[in-house]
Design a protein that fits this description.
Elements lengths: L1 E5 L14 H7 L6 E9 L17 H13 L2 E5 H6 L18 E5 L19 E5 L5 H11 L4 E3 L7 H10 L4 E4 L3 H9 L5 E7 L21 E8 L2 E7 L4
Parallel strand pairs: 2-7, 2-8, 3-4, 3-7, 4-5, 5-6
Antiparallel strand pairs: 1-9, 8-10, 9-10
């Protein structure tokens, strides 16, 4: 990766230098109690390809940072719709040492429905949490508890999911480094709740056209973020945007 801007750790790599491996991990390190999102977009702002999936616009540099960010996270936060559409499974082992062998996965579902790929056991992979609301109904909550375990279903909020309470609950269980992988509605909700500390955005060198959604869609936040790190490889730009107050 070629460094274009580095206000994160200037001693690690000067602009114009190349970074990889552990130096790259230093540039993406962050404190505890931190919520970052990782998203990909085309040059014209599409958050997915013509098939509606992010996989069709991902690039090798984007995938490298994706794997690194999962390594650095305690828990991956994802909307249930995205987990179903993208075929999510339980996270696999980290490539570098962490507090646990694998990151966990927390699925946000207003209906308390567990995506099929996450329902069964998967030895050697991360655990799954359900984040939902009381209005999902007791029958749906019991089904989720039967699939994931009673202590794995976190009910926060009545009519709507209380994301602030949910992230505080996860932090209390040792899962304080949160990586939000969307989709667009969940990212918008996390930002609108004032919970987003950082956005890692990969901009791929592609004009998509069409009517694909943006990376954030729904709730308004007006959240201001500043670039702290910009890397480039093979035309893909990899950014770290951080809240000015952090």
């Amino acid at each position: 990766m070629r460094v274009l801007l580095n206000e994160v750790s200037p001693r690690t790599a000067a602009p114009g230098s190349e970074v990889s491996g552990e130096a790259l991990a230093v540039l993406y390190a962050h404190p505890e109690r931190w919520t970052r999102a990782n998203m990909v977009a085309t040059l014209d702002g599409a958050g997915a390809g013509e098939d509606g999936l992010t996989g069709s616009v991902n690039t090798p540099p984007d995938n490298e940072v994706y794997r690194l960010l999962r390594d650095l996270a305690d828990v991956v936060l994802v909307g249930a719709g995205t987990a179903r559409a993208e075929g999510y499974g339980r996270p696999g082992p980290r490539l570098r040492p962490g507090r646990t062998p694998c990151p966990d996965l927390a699925v946000v579902s207003r209906a308390a429905r567990v995506p099929p790929g996450l329902a069964g056991p998967a030895p050697g992979r991360g655990g799954v949490w359900m984040v939902t609301r009381a209005a999902a109904g007791e029958r749906a909550l019991e089904r989720a508890r039967a699939l994931l375990g009673a202590d794995r279903v976190l009910v926060h909020g009545g009519a709507e999911v209380d994301l602030r309470a949910a992230l505080a609950d996860l932090a209390g269980r040792g899962l304080s480094r949160v990586l939000c992988e969307g989709g667009p509605s969940l990212l918008a909700d996390v930002a609108a709740a004032g919970l987003l500390d950082e956005l890692c955005l990969s901009t791929v060198p592609l004009l998509a056209g069409g009517d694909a959604p943006r990376i954030a869609l729904g709730a308004r936040s007006g959240l201001e973020l500043r670039p702290r790190l910009v890397l480039e490889r093979d035309g893909t730009l990899l950014h770290r945007f951080v809240r000015p107050t952090r």
